[in-house]
């Protein structure tokens, strides 16, 4: 009998160990809409800090040109989760596609509408963009949504400017400096790089700070988040919880370290050769990162209001915002952290 009990105990121990190993090896592919953008830094930094593995999940980051491409990767099944802007969840809800964010890492979107240095003389305001070529990361991305919102807000047809996909990194900077486009919706560090090269750079709209975001949208407007299909979250709660914990720990690390310490952890290829400009951009961006990971219901409502202005389809859809995000994983992680 003792031998039988011993064998059973050994079997259960082996099963427990193998289950624990399997849990530690859970693998998730995250599609990111441009890893060079500081708006997505928490997702990349979590890899550098080893936070995903500490939380019990192995993550593969797939770097794509823009948020719309990252979304397509998840919808097409080649990735599990998007590291991108929450506004896609609202936009897709109008199409009856259930996408849900589960941790927010950007309090503000950080989107900046900038005039090409070669066209500063002819473009003085947003109204001057009618008929002009305006760069976005990729058509259908949050940069495109932002442009259409600003055009509509300024009394123009949202389609009055020609939208050109230029990415968000060096390709966007090059397109602006060479005058291939008249203006662009950009993000840091690209904006700060342009400002460093062109002291008279003209900015038409900026959402990198709370003050500027309130001025543009009339309220706080959440930007970057981890989101995916509601079905994936339901069937992968353990993985969603691990990803949430990793991002929250990364956000806490960001807000307890200097910009110089953060930069030192980032991959050299993302920092680039001009560390001074990257550091300046990072200093501009840090206030943008969330300190809680929580979605503010008012922020989600602001996203819906913006889309409703520019899209009759969204306005008429009767969207239930509570289905476009969940704070459950963040609240569980915060509770666990508080109990330690």
Notes on the structure:
It contains 17 helices and ten strands. The chain is of the alpha/beta class. The strands form two sheets. A five-stranded mixed beta sheet has the order 2-1-3-10-4, sandwiched between helices. It has a five-stranded mixed beta sheet with strand order 7-6-8-5-9, sandwiched between helices. It starts with a helix and ends with a helix.
SSE map:
Blueprint: H1 2-24, E1 26-32, H2 41-48, H3 51-55, E2 57-63, H4 67-76, E3 81-85, H5 87-93, E4 99-104, E5 112-115, E6 133-136, H6 142-153, E7 162-165, H7 170-177, E8 183-186, H8 190-197, E9 203-206, H9 210-217, E10 224-229, H10 230-235, H11 237-254, H12 259-265, H13 268-271, H14 275-285, H15 297-310, H16 312-315, H17 328-338
Parallel strand pairs: 1-2, 1-3, 6-7, 6-8
Antiparallel strand pairs: 3-10, 4-10, 5-8, 5-9
Helix pairs in contact: 2-11, 6-15, 7-8, 8-14, 11-17
């Amino acid at each position: 009998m003792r031998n039988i009990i011993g064998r059973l105990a050994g079997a259960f121990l082996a099963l427990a160990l193998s289950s624990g190993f399997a849990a530690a090896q859970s693998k998730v592919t995250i599609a990111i809409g441009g890893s060079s953008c500081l708006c997505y830094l928490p997702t990349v930094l979590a890899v550098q800090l080893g936070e995903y593995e500490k939380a019990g999940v192995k993550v593969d980051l797939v770097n794509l040109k823009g948020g719309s491409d990252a979304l397509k990767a998840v919808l097409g099944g080649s990735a599990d989760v998007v590291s991108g802007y929450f506004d896609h969840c609202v936009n897709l809800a109008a199409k009856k596609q259930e996408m849900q964010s589960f941790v927010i890492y950007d309090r503000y979107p950080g989107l900046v509408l900038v005039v090409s240095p070669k066209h500063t003389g002819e473009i003085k305001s947003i109204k001057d963009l009618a008929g002009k070529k305006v760069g976005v990361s990729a058509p259908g991305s949050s940069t495109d949504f932002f442009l259409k919102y600003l055009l509509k807000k300024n009394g123009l047809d949202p389609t009055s400017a020609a939208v050109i996909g230029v990415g968000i990194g060096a390709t966007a900077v090059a397109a602006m400096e060479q005058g291939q486009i008249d203006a662009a919706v950009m993000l840091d560090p690209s904006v700060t790089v342009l400002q460093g090269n062109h002291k008279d750079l003209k900015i038409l709209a900026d959402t990198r700070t709370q003050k500027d975001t309130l001025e543009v949208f009339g309220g706080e407007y959440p930007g970057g988040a981890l989101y995916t299909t509601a079905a994936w979250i339901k069937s992968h709660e353990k993985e969603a919880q691990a990803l949430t914990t990793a991002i929250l720990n990364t956000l806490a690390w960001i807000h307890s370290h200097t910009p110089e310490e953060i930069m030192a952890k980032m991959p050299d290829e993302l920092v680039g050769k001009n560390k001074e400009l990257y550091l300046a951009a990072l200093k501009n961006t840090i206030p943008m990162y969330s300190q809680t990971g929580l979605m503010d219901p008012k922020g989600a409502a602001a996203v819906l209001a913006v889309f409703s202005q520019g899209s009759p389809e969204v306005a008429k859809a009767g969207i239930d915002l509570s289905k476009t995000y969940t704070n459950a994983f963040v609240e569980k992680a915060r509770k666990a952290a508080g109990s330690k």
